[in-house]
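Q: I have 95 residues here and want to know how they pack in 3D. Can you give me a structure?
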Amino acid sequence: MMQLLGGVSRSTLAKYETLPHVTLSQDTLERISYILGIYESLRVMYSTAERANRRVRLETSEPPFLGASALDFMAQGSMKHLMETRRYFDAKRAG
């Protein structure tokens, strides 16, 4: 989770989880938007949260993952990884 949000520290993540209102940077908001879009696509494609969560952890040889799971690919930390993952699952959902 820390990597997906741009490499935030454990203490920053804890602050996000406990405070009722936190001002987030544009970068963090964009990352959250990608993550929510990915999850939305997965939930449309799979009937249960368990199946959607399993799919994001499944290794695949398809681009852009090339043997990694979507979660591992996204955890590399760049916005580009989140964008490519969102594009992949949006295309799968539409196909």
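Q: Anything worth noting?
A: The radius of gyration is 14 Å. Residues 31 and 70 are 15 Å apart (CA to CA).
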